[in-house]
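pipeline/complex-builder :: batch 7 item 3
reading input block
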Amino acid sequence: EMVLTQSPGTLSLSPGERATLSCRASQSVNNNFLGWYQQKPGQAPRLIIYAASTRATGIPDRFSGSGSGTDFTLTINRLEPEDFAVYYCQQYGSAPHAFGGGAKVEVK
Amino acid sequence: EVQLLESGGGVVQAGGSLRLSCAVSGFTFINYAVSWVRQAPGKGLEWVSAIGRGGVIPHYADIAKGRFTIFGDNSKTTLFLQMNSLRAEDTAIYYCAKEGDHPYFDYWGQGILVTVSS
């Protein structure tokens, strides 16, 4: 069963800075089927990126995803106030479709 | 417009049962799979179960096998999760989520809280 490890657990940044979040898989993710979700307190998760690098509908271009195999990255350029949240990666290349433990981007 | 609306949550004693519902609109699970994903208080996301495209074939995480049953109605617009032998560790917000062209989740319901008291 694949395990996804996200790092860092918490990232403290100021608006306007760049956030770089890592997601490492214990095995190669088939077809780079890796997604990223954003979750704010009291809300459902929201799809940000799928297939490692494709932005979901309505997601601004300051969000970008990259990586392949076992190492994936979510980059948020020029953080906006609404970007401070918890981010989860999820692999869906092989069952069960596991989530990472989450990474919090907080205001410094 | 795609929407998912969960209902049926609440407080139940350990060992008891609960049935969650997820009413979908803007699509049916003939065309797209739908999953249940849960989140324990203060914790991360955990996939629980899915019904595949066509609304017939179920899939379960190990934590759900033998205790939970996923099924849909004939109209393929309401999904159910029958949860039996509930444990304190099943306490969580349960979300239903629509899958996209592949098993990423492009639409989510608002979630429903299930509390299992011991």
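note: The mean pLDDT of chain B is 95.
queue -> next item
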